[in-house]
Amino acid sequence: MKLKSEQALELDESHVTVGQSFCDDPKMTMRNVDVFYSDKQAIYDVNIDIAKNEVIAMIGPSGCGKSTFLRTLNRMNDTVEGCRVDGQICMDGQDLYSPKLDVVELRARVGMVFQKPNPFPKSIRDNVTYGPKIHGLADTRVDLDEILEKSLRKAGLWEEVKDRLDQPGTGLSGGQQQRLCIARAIAVSPEVILMDEPCSALDPIATAKIEELIKELSQNFTIAIVTHSMQQAARVSHRTAYFHLGKLIEVNPTEQVFTMPKHQLTEAYITGRFG
Amino acid sequence: MSDSKTLIKIQHSLTQRNRAEARFHWYGRIAILIGLMAVALLFIDIVGKGHGAFRATYINLDIRYDADLIGIDNLSDTEQLSAGNWQALPKTALRERFPDVSSRRDKRRLNNLLSNGAGFDLKDRLLASPRLLGKTESVWVLADDDIDTYYKSWLDGNAYEARLTGQQIQWIGELHEQGSIKLKFNSNLFNRGDSREPEQAGIRGAAVGSFLTLVMTLMLSFPIGVCAAIYLEEFAPKNRWTDFIEVNINNLAAVPSIIFGLLGLAIFINFFHVPRSVPIVGGLVLTLMTLPTIIITSRAAIKSVPPSIREAALGVGASRYQMVLHHVLPLALPGMLTGAIIGMAQALGETAPLLMIGMVAFIVDIPNGFSDPATVLPVQIFLWADSPERAFVEKTSAAIMVLLSFLIAMNTTAVWLRRRLERRW
Ligand SMILES: Nc1ncnc2c1ncn2[C@@H]1O[C@H](COP(=O)(O)OP(=O)(O)OP(=O)(O)O)[C@@H](O)[C@H]1O
Ligand SMILES: [Mg+2]
Predict the structure, then answer these.
(1) What is the value of ipTM here, to two decimals?
(2) Sign for the pseudo-dihedral over CA of A72, A74, A80, A84
(3) What's this model's pTM, rounded to 2 decimal places?
């Protein structure tokens, strides 16, 4: 019985992503994307659109390529030795991997929040204002302070840190640090924010705060979030994408994925049969 | 599987493990004890031998600044001044102290009580206050090194008489009874350059030479080393070439320093015709020697910066250069500085390569710049240790003490700097 079900979960060779992977007014589009680490392939032929102001969640078993997928969207993979990306990834119709594009500009437009909170070992103020400073977004100190306050407010951190802006960011609690990192990311006013398991190092209360934040941010930003928690995906995202062994299996509106998954692998995963 | 059986087995192995651990602790303690004892022995030996050098023997004489005696009539005529018989001043005063001495041989022996630099000290005194000319003044003048050796050993209770005659010993005894001979702080040791006469020899020349050479070394090796490390660590592609370079840097760190001396001789002196014996060439050679150390420690410091910080910087859109300059460098700096200071400490103690490029020459003048002939502290120690005069024994130890205190000062600075820079967060 068990053996039979496992056989049923085998991937068919000519796989096509099921569900609604495309949309009318996409912010980002990916077509036939393959990613290789040296000669090991991590992502196979992914096609997907990310709509404007949507929150899209990536779920899937460990090692299935969620982080790799996410990091192709701001070319963070460039820093990995031997990593190669094939296919086409566009933002607003502009090819992200064309030689004409400047990664620095791209990363200003596509911000990133990492799994482990990684504030700079500098003051809270410097953490948030670093991005605006290097991009020349503020001409005066007053402007900079305005960005600082606005970003910290959006990240829901202002009330907690407004009296200690010059203290080290590394001295905050884990959840506060993660919100600081979010503030740092939104301080450069990106169009898209990528989040790679932003809550995996946090307790439930801090997690709830961040989720609240994501919902609010989705009014202004497009958000792609990788998560291991299906509840989290269900709570914050509009659409959910399920990855399996480097392949994009299913993309559908979140309620549908969690209530009526189309693909048997997705079903197996959300019912906890593996992962 | 009964639980109690496992428990007994665990307890059995536990006693064994604890015993092994205790043994291991003791090995460590013994190793540290041996190390400490070696250091203590070294210090006791050096301080025991060298502490005497910080004081020198002086004889009190009533000096009359007699222009005729010196053979001058005009204090502003430099030619006259340098031709003057200055040594006549202390000699005459000493002879007046012992009027009975009449034979030529005895007179010469009496004169031998004095350092032959004593006259020049008096010249400096007179030039500093010219109104002394024609007047008489009670002055402590420097004694000869043999007298110094004898007097110190005699005060310590085991007189070393080998180089003196009975009569000289008697004169010293008389002077001692009159309170006219005593040990005073040896300012020459810190104010003068090298000399053939031990009582006039000082380490200032070598110390200044060391300083200039180190400044040269630091100015060259720190920026070059740090730039090389940053390039290799952050920008260079990882391919066969950079592997090759990495292996060779590690090899270079293991090359005996005398080879660098030969290299410096061949390249800087014979090919580029940089003058010998000058701090520039010393600095160049020591740069070659310390570069691998600095590159290796700087790379280690850069590597130890967490990758999450780099990702954070790149993630907000910093360019690679900004990431390095704003985030990696500040975090790596303490490690780099420590590496640089360790490299400098090595360079400060280095002798062999400097022998090859002529910094071993006998140099009396204190160097005034990077292109003046100079020697350095360890070479000075080597030269003094090699001198036959007994008085140089304590001088050697004193110079070692000075060198060691420089080293300790540098290492303390390294620790302090590290703490200072790290404490920021
Ligand atoms: N730097 C790298 N070099 C080589 N292979 C890598 C590298 N990073 C990831 N991989 C491989 O690529 C595949 C996908 O990894 P990825 O990190 O994207 O998985 P993930 O879905 O994020 O997993 P997790 O949920 O555990 O974070 C894995 O098989 C992994 O071993
Ligand atoms: Mg991941």
Answers:
(1) 0.88
(2) positive
(3) 0.83
